[in-house]
Amino acid sequence: MSNQSELFLVNQEFKPEQSYLRELLQSTKLKLQVFWTEFRTLIMFLIIMVVFRSAVADWNQVPTGSMKPTILEGDRVVVNKLAYDLKVPFTSWEVGRWSDPSRGEIVTFYSPRDDKLLIKRVIGVPGDVVSMRNNQLYINHEPANYGQLDIEIIKQLDLYQRTNHAFFYEQFDGHRHPVMMRPSEPNDYNSFGPVEVPDDHYLMLGDNRDNSADSRVIGLISRDRITGRAHTIAFSVDYEDYYLPRLDRFIKPLEFD
User: Fold this and answer.
1) Which of 2, 72, 106, 193 has the lowest tally of Cβ within 10 angstroms?
2) CATH fold of 59-253
3) pLDDT tens digits for range 67-111
4) H/E run at residue 104
5) Within 10 A of 73 (CB to CB), how many other CB atoms are there?
6) How far apart are CA 37 and CA 117, in angstroms?
């Protein structure tokens, strides 16, 4: 058999496969075009929502009780990511800054220890001198004031927590917020300082003072790690009661004054 005949036979053998591949590619291309036509609005919406949640506003699940009695496990908290600055989506690169966190505000930030997203209350701002003596807070050598907490706030907690903690409003510079403490002797956790907060850093504490991995554990928080200000509980579910909704905590502001 001549070489030309052999080449002709080889081409004849592969033509069906080549035709099948062309048809498959054309079919796949057509399906992608149909998919894009049908779902491009949804895809663009999802992209916009992801960017929005990264740079503008977000809602964060709270899995721990470190901010009790203000925030409970199962609360979904709305965070304003434009409260202080504008960052490039999905990064910590700051495009512009127009404000800084104030003492008493609840903020979200990335832990310097493991980069987990945390939520705590700002207690010390740059230039403050903060100390604590048996859970009595002092800021710039002035003691915070403590008053009786509303019983309706306390009733949100289970019997064990209600009977093993003391509850107060903590007030400083006209701002007040709830705190809970476990009565005990002075120790390395309920007593610290004085600590002077340097420039561009913040001292964070949880409202559940004896059960919070805050600045007493992870150190001071640099300004670039703060992602936004929490201001409202969007909705809440009860982990201990089959994830049933807590309707009284829907659209609930975090400010008590």
Assistant:
1) 2
2) Umud Fragment, subunit A (2.10.109)
3) 999 999 999 999 988 889 888 776 777 888 899 999 999 999 999
4) none
5) 17
6) 37
